[in-house]
Amino acid sequence: MTGALPLGSPISERSVDAREDPEIRVATVDEILDLRYRVLIVGTKRASAEVPGDREEKTLHVGAFLNGRAIGCASLLPAEWEGTHAWQLRCMAIEPSFQGKGLGSSVLAYLEDLALKQSPARIFWCNARIEAVGFYEKQGWRAVSEEYVIDDVGPHRRMLRRLGPACTELEEERHG
Ligand SMILES: CC(C)(COP(=O)(O)OP(=O)(O)OC[C@H]1O[C@@H](n2cnc3c(N)ncnc32)[C@H](O)[C@@H]1OP(=O)(O)O)[C@@H](O)C(=O)NCCC(=O)NCCS
What we know:
This protein has a single domain (20-162), classed as Aminopeptidase. The protein is of the alpha+beta class. Helix 2 (103-118) links the parallel strand 4 (84-94) and strand 5. The termini are far apart. It contains three helices and eight strands; from the N terminus they run βαβββαβαβββ. The structure holds coenzyme A. The site of coenzyme A has 19 residues, from helix 1, strand 4, helix 2, strand 5 and helix 3.
């Protein structure tokens, strides 16, 4: 295991022990910013891996950690969907050398379960990068928009996952 790397350093397969299972757990935003930066920001015109609401109390961050280093992450921010309590999924990222091994689906499932325990909201939505739409569809999400472009990032589709009965109305229920 190597020591701390400077921000934005790639993690080679040699720097982690891939024989160990990653630990998936609640994370702080600071633990996952570097991974977000390398996977989601490099190659765009954006400068920061932080998004508005990241440090709000009710925002949920989950990470997959191997030898203490984040190799997967995703976040849920309280948000509305058509006047109803909902969660917006943001910044889902898996270290490139660990993609395609089931880690993304495990991180997302962990995060959804966590949200269901913490809030009556049963609706999840996100602005999905076009190349990730197929991944979300396999996790039970569905595309609910045509393709649109987010400046500095590229083409997206809005995706939705609705679980259980319709969520309570905003004015009737406390969120979380
Ligand atoms: C998209 C991403 C999060 C998926 O994570 P992952 O760990 O590679 O995905 P998994 O291995 O858990 O895949 C789960 C299933 O989805 C499928 N899948 C994964 N990525 C896919 C893709 N881009 N398109 C279609 N299907 C995909 C897998 O084949 C697998 O299918 P299976 O259940 O039939 O075996 C990851 O590849 C990533 O970080 N990509 C770059 C950043 C990104 O695009 N993030 C999303 C921003 S909206």
